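Render this sequence as a predicted structure.
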Amino acid sequence: MSTARARISVLDLAPVRLNGTIAEAFRNTVDLAIHAERWGYTRFWLAEHHNMPGIGSAATAVLIGHVAGATSRLRVGSGGVMLPNHAALVIAEQFGTLATLYPGRIDLGIGRAPGSDRVASMALGYNTAEEDFPGQVSELLAYLAPANPGQRLIAYPGAGTNVPVWLLGSSTYSAQLAAALGLPFAFASHFAPAMLMEALALYRATFKPSPHLDRPYAMVGVPLAAAETDDEARCLATSALQRGLNLIRGHALFVPPPVDSMYGLWSEPERMAVESRMKVAAIGGPETVRRRLTQLWRQTQADEFIFTSDLYDHAARLRSFEIAAEVARDLAVETTGSPACLTA
């Protein structure tokens, strides 16, 4: 074991502000990525969602290319692509193209959920009755590996790029599959933290070394609202709380302005449901965030944190990620090192 600087990354959904535009959201996404690169973040991931007004990252691969083209060192990827929505060949071609355009900088995080509602899932052809996620993952890995002599179906481009594939999940299912295949694992504790510790323990206990990875590598999602003071951060975080409330109510997910108090905006069961999704959140001024991240690293032994920050004001959102980067620079965590394919 050795001591290293805490590794941190960004998860972005191209959030659209209430009364804002998708074009504005895309500009903000690129601006955040440029700043994240400057502040020393490892990677910048974008998530696939459909039929969700307020989330602009539906055409995930297109947006990844746009962000990668505006940066020079940052790893850019998907957090994630929902593989059952697509043919594995198409994803291999898309990410093979990205990896060829931006060598050594593309990640492919894949998930099993549809990333949408039932109507959009039907339009995408997502069928849980016919789903074979392990088979799809194996097929995708094969397309990204070097082609064999006489192979009739080749991802071109894609074959031989060996784009790093991550499994994403919010339960033990993907943790177990990632361990069996020897892949890095990212847990979606930024919105579903309930099974975090169980999934991490299972992943590490059952991990099998593979040509992709020789030891477990786990990333943990953390909601973030950092500001100059605890009071300011708690106020800014009400945008994320309102957004979580709209999600469970089935409303549009535009990012609303912060409010002084959530009192009267939700019922007690709604409050409990929304706050349960924020159990691993880091909310506060620099010292509070430092203590929180130190606590989370000790609890999870995560190799990496990936932050998501649903703040209304773009400048405040930038400052939130900047504070997290400043805190991480001062955090020393025990590490066994990181495989070269997972680092910038």
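Summary. The two ends are 21 Å apart (CA to CA). The chain has a mean pLDDT of 92.
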